[in-house]
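re: the backbone from monday

yeah here it is again, tokenized this time
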């Protein structure tokens, strides 16, 4: 590790001083040099009075110090130290247009070296902005629903301005300044190189800071900066998993294929064995009046009736046939009991048919998206093929009809097969107030894209950014304010107040579930199929009888 030293003897070839770079720089300037003011003005224009630079200025005369530093943008994040003979001053302004603040360190020349090594960082030295007013703006997108910054009834509306407001008020109280606040209704979108909304007034330097949280986006970094992340915003398609009957035949689900095959083999074997016993009775002329009826058709009908818990008028007298029929009926009771219990649990539980974005695209679900300023942006910018397929197949054909308020979207999600792309915190708040306990248990979420973090926006090259946000630790472990709020849990407390949590499922195994028409459709289809087959067979029997009658009539006539 080393230090690179450059000495400039002429102000005309002075150093380039970009506001930001990957390394820090120290500047030493003798104010008694001719045209030293030009270097100071160049640094002011390029915003080089910030935390990246440490300035050490020398002069022998303190009478003209304010004249030399007049109108320079030396704001609270500037690290500017002026040595006047035996005295050392910390110099900054609390705001552009305000007089210079000179703080005498009270350090003599003998202690100067040790003090410079251990001197607190700039942001830990600036703790009092002297009750100055800073221009700020916040967002109220739906004024008709706004009832104050502490009103929790409509948390899903303007959640992030409401969440950020108490944090920024605490910051102002901590650093002793106030806001000159204005209200706007948009976060800001880019049009022809310029932004509207909050991003636009920060771009035009009409305000110093935004009392809200905005997405950390690449296009916005060109025109503004951010001073601290607040919370993570998660958006997802929320929906209630469809019932098992909506995606499969519930009458086939209780048993696996192996169990169905085994059960079929058992009851088919019972029917065949009973038919064999009937053949033996008839072949050996055993004394059993039921023997002639134990044909293959009758015994298979008995096996089917046993499966369906139906009785039979077959009453064979031989003991082997009776035992076979008894155990066939017992087996059907056990199988039917297991089948009934399982099908009840299947009807009560939602399915797991939809697990991915592609599953959602192929499903019969209708879809909607929360009405937000970024409602189309992240679908259009997504590079995931599955997300693009879903957007083009399900959302794009709907046009503006795809975009709904949180309340309307959650209401549709509750009452039908509907998936709603919504910010989690907004969706959870409405769900916790409108869904029953059982309805909360079937919730499913699938993320179509990952949203960026949200942070407090501030004017580009603002003189307060590092003071508000960046974490610096000195020997006394002092932190700057927004990061200090995060470290001490104040930010987390505010997040818990304004960001709703996922509703807990507390009624997964209780309650009453009605069986709908969809649940019994397969049974109705079987009934209709059987009725159709019966009608067809009846027609064939009638035709066959008519044909035989016609043939007999022809023979007699002949």
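seq for it, each position gets an aa:
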């Amino acid at each position: 590790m080393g230090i690179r030293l450059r000495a400039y003897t002429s102000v005309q070839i002075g150093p380039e001083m970009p506001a930001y770079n990957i390394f820090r720089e120290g500047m030493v300037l003798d104010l008694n040099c001719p045209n030293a003011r030009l270097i100071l003005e160049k640094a002011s224009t390029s915003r080089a009075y910030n935390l990246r630079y440490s300035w050490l200025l020398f002069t022998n005369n303190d009478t003209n110090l304010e004249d030399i530093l007049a109108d320079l943008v030396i704001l609270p994040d500037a690290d500017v130290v002026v040595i006047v003979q035996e005295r050392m001053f910390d110099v900054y302004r609390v705001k552009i247009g305000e007089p210079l603040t000179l703080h005498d360190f009270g350090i003599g020349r003998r202690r100067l070296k040790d003090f410079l090594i251990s001197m607190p960082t700039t942001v830990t030295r600036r703790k009092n902005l002297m009750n100055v007013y800073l221009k700020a703006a916040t967002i109220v997108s739906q004024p008709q629903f706004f009832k104050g910054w502490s009103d929790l009834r409509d948390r899903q509306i303007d959640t992030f301005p409401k969440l950020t407001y108490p944090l920024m008020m605490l910051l102002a109280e901590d650093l002793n300044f106030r806001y000159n606040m204005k209200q706007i209704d948009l976060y800001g979108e880019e049009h022809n190189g310029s932004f509207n909304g909050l991003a636009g007034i920060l771009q035009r330097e009409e305000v110093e800071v935004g009392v809200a949280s905005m997405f950390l986006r690449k296009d916005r970094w060109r025109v503004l900066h951010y001073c601290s992340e607040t919370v993570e915003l998660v958006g997802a398609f929320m929906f209630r998993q469809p019932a098992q009957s909506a995606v499969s035949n519930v009458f086939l689900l209780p048993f696996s294929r192996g169990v169905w095959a085994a059960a079929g083999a058992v009851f088919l074997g019972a029917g065949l064995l009973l038919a064999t016993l009937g053949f033996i009775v008839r072949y050996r002329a055993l004394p059993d009046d039921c023997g002639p009826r134990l044909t293959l058709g009758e015994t298979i009908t008995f096996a089917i009736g046993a499966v369906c818990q139906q009785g039979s008028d077959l009453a064979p007298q031989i003991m082997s046939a009776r035992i076979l029929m008894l155990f066939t009926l017992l087996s059907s009771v056990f199988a039917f009991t297991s089948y009934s219990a399982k099908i009840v649990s299947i009807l009560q539980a939602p399915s797991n048919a939809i697990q991915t974005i592609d599953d959602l695209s192929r499903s019969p679900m209708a879809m909607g998206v929360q009405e937000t300023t970024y409602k189309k942006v992240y679908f259009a910018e997504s590079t995931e093929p599955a997300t693009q397929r879903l957007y083009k197949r399900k959302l794009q054909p709907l046009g503006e009809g795809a975009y709904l308020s949180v309340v309307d979207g959650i209401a549709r999600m509750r009452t039908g097969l509907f998936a709603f792309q919504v910010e989690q915190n907004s969706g959870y708040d409405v769900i916790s107030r409108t869904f029953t306990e059982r309805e909360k248990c079937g919730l499913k979420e699938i993320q179509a894209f990952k949203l960026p973090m949200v942070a407090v926006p501030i004017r580009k090259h603002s003189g307060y950014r590092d003071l508000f946000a960046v974490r610096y630790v000195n020997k006394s472990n002092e932190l700057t304010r927004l990061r200090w709020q995060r470290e001490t849990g104040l930010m987390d407390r505010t997040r818990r107040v304004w960001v709703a949590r996922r509703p807990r499922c507390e009624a997964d195994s209780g309650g009453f579930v009605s069986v709908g028409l969809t649940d019994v459709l397969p049974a109705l289809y079987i009934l209709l199929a059987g009725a159709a087959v019966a009608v067809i067979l009846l027609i064939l029997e009638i035709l066959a009888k008519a044909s035989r009658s016609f043939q007999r009539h022809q023979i007699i006539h002949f």
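The longest helix spans residues 517-557. Residues 472-478 have pLDDT under 50 and may be disordered.
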